[in-house]
Every structure is written in structure tokens, then in C-alpha cells.
Write a structure and sequence with these properties.
The protein has twelve helices and eleven strands. The longest helix has 20 residues. It is an alpha+beta fold and 316 residues long. Strand 6 and strand 7 form a beta hairpin.
């Protein structure tokens, strides 16, 4: 069982017969117990499958993005979380099955495509519906979450929004698989950025703006071009200032920083999976020469391109 600092686990054993009986009544009858009678509980249950990545696995999660951990879970019975005064903020997305969650001091059903948003210091609780399997993805942020997330919270109490059932499952499973296999930090960070982007977009009630979709498709098709903010805005058919606002909303980055990110991501792929030299990679990714690419790569990744290539070859 993975425990978070500040959470007290609640175990069912022979010394808690009264509580076991209480849980038997809870999980087998309606109505559910009064929210005022809940005890701090953190139990993953005996029949649970989970794939979890924490900041201990990838420190940038917390250091740069304010994420303590995230994961994808399938549970059938006994999975129960009650947090009386949580020190974190969480988004939990029901992918399939059914769960029960506490909203405004009443129990409500969580169905696929519903996200349970739980702010810091506000009591919340959830568990798989009796006799049913629940599959869900979740991400836990430190405190109130980073500004890019916090600014889109709609309430200061737990609430539910409608989302794509697979909103977080693909990026969180992708992150998990990368952390236990190739461990490529740029790829891992790409998955994390998707988690942040999808979470922010869901909280804001937005899908990706079609102008941004059109822009970045064009950019990736011609990434070596000498792009400027003016030429990017022209493709998006908006002013430069409006493009900055759109990019900050969607990615938390300026248009030019988003461009740099895409170039370095491509450079990493070429270093890892091709035999191209640095001059050739620089030409393909829009850098003036190998030295400029090397400096940008080392500054962003904290490792030289040559060392990165050697590490990736050892992992393949």
C-alpha cells in the first residue's frame, strides 16, 4: 500500500469488529453513512491493480509541475478513501464501472466520463460501488496545485465535471511505462505535460483550440523553418498577443517556448533512434549549427547530446 504524508491508513482487522460491521452495513445497504461520522481512511483494497508514478520515481513531477503522484487503478472491492482535511488537490476520472463519491455532504454516483475534483482542506470520500468494478485514473497535486491548475478550479468544495473517460489514462500509463522501461526523461516529461494540459483543459471546460491544432500541425511538418512569433500567429490567423494567450492557456508556455520544446523532442528522438550526426540533427530541427543545438539540449536536459545518446543505446 502506498501512503501519502499526512494520510492515516485505516485497516480492517479483528480489533475493529464494530468498524467492520459498520463497513458491512455501508457497502451492503442504503443510505450511506452520515458524512459527519467518517474516519480518515486510505485503503487500496485487497483486489486492486494499480500503475502509479510518484515524484520519487521522477523528481521533476513535483519540482516543476507540482504533482505528487498519478496513476491508473482497477479495483473491485475494499478500495476506500476518506480524507478529512487533505493537504493535496486531486482529479479522479472514472474510466469504466461505477463509484460513489461525497459531494456537498451527500453521496452521488460516479459514472464513466465523470471527474471528481477535490480541493485541498475539503473533506472528500470515494469508493467502488458494491459488487462493481471501477477503473479510474487520477493525479494528486501538492497543496492547491500549480497556478496553471489552481486558476481553473470552479469551486472551493469537491465537485464533478464531465470529461473524456480516457482523459488521463493514456498519458499516465505512458508515463508509468516509460519510468519502468527506457526512462527517457524528455519522453517522461512529455507525458507529464500532457497530464497537465489535459487536466487544465478539462477544468477550464475547453478542448484544444482548432487554431492551435492547425498551427502545430503546420509547424511539425516544417519544424526546421525559421519560425517567429509573427509567422506562427499568421498560421493560427490571430494576433501575436492573442496567440501568446492561447498557448499559455493550452500549454503553460509561450509560442516560442512551445516551438523549442517540439524541436528538442524531435532532437531527442533522432539521437536515440538514428545514426544521424549532430550537424544533420541541428539542420532537421531548426538549429543553426551543432554547437547551438548542443547548448540548448544540455541546458534543457541537464545532459549532453552525446551522453544522452549513449544512455539511450544502453537501454535499448
Amino acid at each position: 500500500m502506498l501512503l501519502l504524508k499526512g494520510f492515516r491508513p485505516y485497516f480492517y482487522d479483528e480489533t475493529h469488529q464494530r468498524d467492520n460491521l459498520f463497513m458491512d452495513v455501508w457497502l451492503g445497504a442504503s443510505p450511506y453513512p452520515s458524512p459527519g461520522n467518517l474516519a480518515e481512511t486510505h485503503d487500496v483494497g485487497p483486489d486492486t491493480w494499480a500503475r502509479i508514478t510518484s515524484h520519487l520515481d521522477f523528481p521533476i513531477l513535483l519540482e516543476k509541475y507540482g504533482i505528487i503522484m498519478g496513476g491508473h487503478t482497477v479495483t473491485r472491492r475494499g478500495n476506500l478513501f476518506i480524507r478529512k482535511n487533505p493537504v493535496t488537490t486531486q482529479m479522479l476520472v472514472c474510466c469504466s464501472g461505477e463509484a460513489v463519491a461525497l459531494i456537498d455532504d451527500r453521496w452521488v454516483t460516479l459514472s464513466p466520463g465523470m471527474a471528481y475534483i477535490t480541493p485541498r482542506k475539503k473533506q472528500h470520500a470515494y469508493f467502488a460501488s458494491p459488487g462493481k468494478e471501477m477503473e479510474f485514473s487520477w493525479v494528486i497535486f501538492e497543496g492547491d496545485g500549480p497556478e496553471s491548475i489552481r486558476s481553473y478550479m470552479r469551486r472551493d468544495q469537491p465537485y464533478i465535471i464531465s470529461v473524456d473517460p480516457n482523459l488521463l489514462s493514456f498519458p499516465l500509463l505512458g508515463l508509468y511505462n516509460e519510468t519502468i522501461h527506457l526512462k527517457d526523461e524528455l519522453t517522461m516529461e512529455s507525458w507529464v505535460q500532457l497530464v497537465i494540459t489535459y487536466t487544465r483543459r478539462a477544468l477550464a471546460g475547453n478542448e484544444l483550440d482548432p487554431r492551435l491544432r492547425r498551427l502545430w500541425i503546420a509547424v511539425e511538418a516544417d519544424i526546421s523553418r525559421d519560425w517567429t512569433c509573427e509567422s506562427l500567429a499568421s498560421i493560427a490567423r490571430v494576433s501575436e498577443e492573442h496567440l501568446r494567450r492561447l498557448c499559455h492557456l493550452a500549454y503553460g508556455l509561450s509560442p516560442i517556448k512551445r516551438l523549442y520544446y517540439l524541436r528538442l523532442r524531435l532532437a531527442s528522438e533522432l539521437l536515440a533512434y538514428t545514426e544521424l550526426g549532430m550537424e544533420q540533427i541541428a539542420e532537421r530541427t531548426g538549429y543553426s549549427d551543432a554547437a547551438t543545438l548542443s547548448r540548448a539540449f544540455s541546458r534543457n536536459r541537464g545532459i549532453s547530446p552525446a551522453r544522452y545518446r549513449r544512455q539511450m543505446r544502453l537501454n535499448q
